[in-house]
Design goal:
It is a single chain. By secondary structure, the chain is an alpha+beta fold. It contains 5 helices and 5 strands. It has a 3-stranded antiparallel sheet with strand order 2-1-3. Strands 4-5 form a two-stranded parallel ribbon.
Length: 140
């Protein structure tokens, strides 16, 4: 079993487990590997050091990393539960709320870099929060 440190083009870092290096190369060349946070399929392998189990520090660091990741996922679930998805109409709806043309509520959606800059120029605060694709999909 090969464990590789991987990274998408948005600098989201994650581990990939493969049966062999050939398995990784095959999946990578066919774009079968995707970032668990954003779904991006432009993945590169990062340099990694050998895993030496000389102390409990490695296990503790891994546990800490898992705990942080769990907390981030819980936060993302809460954001999804407590906001309305307005999709690509985000900038328009944020303006309507800001100018009291629509009821005040938490919204989430998609905005371009230009739209976010225009909102900031109008004094409308927005926060970019990339949500993992797994949370955007409906549960079956």
């Amino acid at each position: 079993m090969k464990v590789y440190n991987l990274c998408c083009e948005h600098d989201h870092r994650f581990e990939g487990w493969f049966a062999s290096e050939d398995d990784f190369l095959t999946q990578s060349s066919q774009h079968l590997i995707e970032c668990p946070l954003c779904g991006n399929q432009t993945i590169k392998r990062l340099p990694s050091s050998p895993r030496l189990n000389l102390s409990g520090a490695t296990a503790r660091a891994r546990e800490d990393g898992n705990r942080v990741q769990d907390q981030l996922m819980e936060f993302a679930r809460k954001v999804i539960a407590d906001t309305e998805d307005v999709g690509t109409q985000f900038a328009e709806e944020a303006r309507r709320i800001h100018y009291n043309e629509a009821p005040e509520r938490g919204i989430r959606g998609v905005a371009t870099v230009e739209e976010r800059a225009e909102l900031a120029d109008e004094g409308i605060d927005v926060v970019s929060l990339p949500l993992p694709n797994t949370l955007k999909q409906s549960l079956q």
